[in-house]
Amino acid sequence: MQDEPRPKSHDSSSGTLGAFQRRGEVIKPAELIEVRGGEKITLAARRIYNQLLSNAFGPDMAAEGQEYRIPFCELRGNHTSNDRVTEAILSLMQTVVRVRMSDGSTRNVHLLGPTDVEKFGPGIATMLTYELHSKLLPILRDSQIFARLEMQILHGFGTKYGMALYEMIAKRIGLKHVLYNDFETDELRDYLGVPHGKLGPFAALRRKAIEPAVAEVNALAPFSCSVDVAEKQGRKVTKLRLSWWTKSVEEQKAQWQAQKEKQDDLFSVIPPEIINWDE
Questions:
Q1: At the topology level of CATH, where does 160-266 sit?
Q2: I need a labelling partner for 66 at 20 to 30 A (CA). Which of 85, 205, 254, 270 fits?
Q3: pLDDT by residue (tens digit) across 210-244?
């Protein structure tokens, strides 16, 4: 993969943890976006992990032994049962991913550390206390590149491939004069979280993972994208090109209105950008 210049959000004086996280937003270190080994993480687990990162975000996020608390009701969304949340938490605790460090080395690390579940009375679990894994802390502390993810958009995805692609582009959307990135086909397959042994032929990968992911990003995000063949060796596709561009104001307005009709519960607050469109 080609080297990437630093995005506009890069700040070597304070790093990722010095950024300001707005309400309804997730500041996600770049090192946690393009990882390998996360193919077993479900869509629900990916969404919940982003919520846990958002809840923990701050200058003390990389402190040893730091605990964070979040109500279960914020993690289960429209579901009334905690079963899916519990399964997701256990999956995140057990999953080891390969993370590329800022110095080019690779670290194998668990995504989540110890957790405790609190119950008040005989009812369902009400509060989750969690730690980020200790081996993850240096990554958070040293990270200099991050993506800004919108929680409303994350809740709109119906496939984990779409969410993964959204995060990959969100990491790059602030880059100046860079509008595409080439990936080895197997590399992109891993970053999207395609299970090993699945969707082996490129036609299957494109039809069941890449095309649905591109369609979701184009429907939900403030930017559009495409994934095209960049290199072939004989009949084998060896490289893919991910391209992205920002939607026009009119495109964003039409998109917001269309999504509001489908997911009105996620669009109760009109963003400032919408208000200014008609002025």
A1: Arc Repressor Mutant, subunit A (1.10.10)
A2: 85
A3: 999 999 999 999 999 999 999 999 999 999 999 99
Domain 7-155 class, CATH top level: mainly alpha
Q: Which residues of the chain have pLDDT under 70?
A: 1-14, 79-80, 121-125, 261-279
Phi, psi of 275 (to 5 degrees): -60, -40
d(CA 274, CA 272): 5
Q: Report which DSSP code applies to 18.
A: G
Alpha carbon of 37 to those of 25, 97, 108, 155, 236: distances in Å?
Answer: 25, 5, 9, 23, 24
CB neighbours of residue 244 within 10 Å: 21
pTM of the model as a whole: 0.85
Whole-angstrom CA distances from 205 to 35, 166, 188, 198 are 18, 17, 10, 8
What are the beta bridge partners of residue 70?
Answer: 128
- pLDDT for residue 4: 43
Position 253 scores a pLDDT of 81
What DSSP assignment string belongs to 149-169? EEHHHHTT-SSHHHHHHHHHH
User: What are the boundaries of each domain within the chain?
Assistant: 7-155, 160-266
Q: How far apart are CA 61 and CA 139, in angstroms?
A: 11
The per-residue pLDDT for 231 is 96
Q: State residue 9's pLDDT score.
A: 39
Cα separation, 268 vs 276, whole angstroms:
17
The string of DSSP letters for 114-162 reads -EEEE-SSSSS--EEEE---GGGHHHHHH---EEEEEHHHHTT-SSHHH
Angle at 186 (CA atoms; ends 183, 192), nearest 5 degrees: 80
